Amino acid sequence: MGTSKKPYTEWVCCECGTKYGRRVDVDHISTYHVGTCGVCGSERAVTEPRDFGHLRDGWEHEPQRD
After folding, report:
1. Structural domains of the chain, count
2. Beta bridge partners of residue 36, listed in sequence order
3. 11 pLDDT above the threshold of 90
4. 40, 49, 44, 43: which is closest to 11 by C-alpha?
5. DSSP secondary structure letters along the chain
6. pTM for the predicted model, two decimal places
C-alpha cells in the first residue's frame, strides 16, 4: 500500500506558521480570517503560508487537533 502525502495547505494558523515556517518577519503585515488550519486542523485565525516564508518539510506530519 502506498502512502498518500497531505497536499500543501492553503491556510495556516500563527502557531503552526511560527513552528514550521521558513521565516518569521516581524515587519511583514499578514491578513488573517477565521478558517481551518491545514496543518493542525484547528478552526482559528489563519493566513497564507507565504506569510511565513512557506512551510518547511515535516509540517504534513503534525497531528490534527480535535
Report:
1. 1
2. 43
3. yes
4. 49
5. -PPPPPPPPS-EEHHHHHHHBS---TT-----EEEE-TTT--EEEEE-GGGGTSBPTTGGGSPPP-
6. 0.85
